[in-house]
Structure formats: C-alpha cells, structure tokens
Request: fold
Amino acid sequence: MSERQSVAVQGVSPGDDSLGARLRAERERSGLTLRELARRLEVSPSLVSQIETGKSQPSVRTLYAIVTELAISLDELFAPADSPLDRERATLRPAGEGGQRADRYGRVQRADDRDVIDLGSGVRWERLTTWNDRDVEFLYTIYEPGGSSSPDGSLMRHNGREFGVVLAGELGVKVGFEDYVLRPGDSIAFDSSIPHRLHNDAEEVVTAIWIVVGRHDVHEQE
Reply:
C-alpha cells in the first residue's frame, strides 16, 4: 500500500481529521443535531453516532445521503489528513488559474499520492484530482469481492449523472429494472436519479474510473 492520504474511518479524537470527524464537523456547522440528521436520513441515531465516532464505516448509499442532506461536495471530505479541516472548504482550482500553488494542487495527480476514502461496504474511492471540484466527482474506485454501493435488495439514488468504465474484474450495475455486467473496457452512463446499485459478486477485485457530474449543483437548485 502506497503512502496515500487516507481519510478512512478511524477512532475520533481531538484534532482528528478522519471521515467520521469531518462529517460530524459539517453536521455541527450546519446546525443539525445528531438526532435530526438521523431523522432526515431515516436511520437510527446510533448509526450516525457510530459513523461520526469511527466505530462504523458508511456505505456508499449512506455517505451520499449524508453529504446530500448537509449540502456539501463529496470532494470536501477528501482534504489531506495532515491539514486543518477548513483548508479545502473553498473550491480549489489548478495551478495557473489565479497564481501558482504547491505541486499537490497542480494539474497532475500522482498515483501514489491520491486522497482516499474507505467505505464499510467493501468499496474504496481514490480522488483523481488534486483539488476540490464542486461540479465533478472524478474517482478511481475499487470494489472488493462482495463489495457494493448499497446492501443487497436496496438501491440508491441522488442528483447528477454518472459515467464509468471498468478497468479490471466484472462489475454488476443495476439501473432501474435493468441489470448489466461490465467487463474490462465496458463503460456505462446513466441519470443518478434513477435507483441504482453497483456490486461485485465475483471473486476478483474490480477497479473502475467513475465520474459523477452535477450532484451538488442540482441539489442547490431544488
């Protein structure tokens, strides 16, 4: 495993910059109580508490529901683990647009320096940009055997449009009433508001490039 900046859920302590701590800080910044957020998400307060304290990792479906309810960009959760929480709250742009930045915020994202989120459903997201882009989620995704975006029998939906291409393995994708199996080189595009689920039912790890466009902006317009 390379030394990538990871915000995988861990125990929360003072100054902790893990995913759980970030979500808790965003919830508190929005003025929502833990119980109110749980009510809006239609989950138990204990689940939200476990996520915020690092005792449980959210599924893709749950994480999308949380960031949508808090009206934040998913990219805001990818801030470097060694930096203050607010460092990337403002959208960053590539070097050359408004002045030079350090290499970390330049145009090129090095493979061994990606920011990472590990999710509880056997899914890993690695951000493919060096900056926080509120309009596009550009991800290298990994689905372990048995990994999925939501539990078996349940689907997720959110604002935006999705585009994906499988690099290795076989990824099952359900969109509405249609089921597909994507193999290396296969790609797919669909409206994210249609109930969908991504899953790996095989024994081989799936890797894919995934892009979500317009999730945050559409939410703001509603």
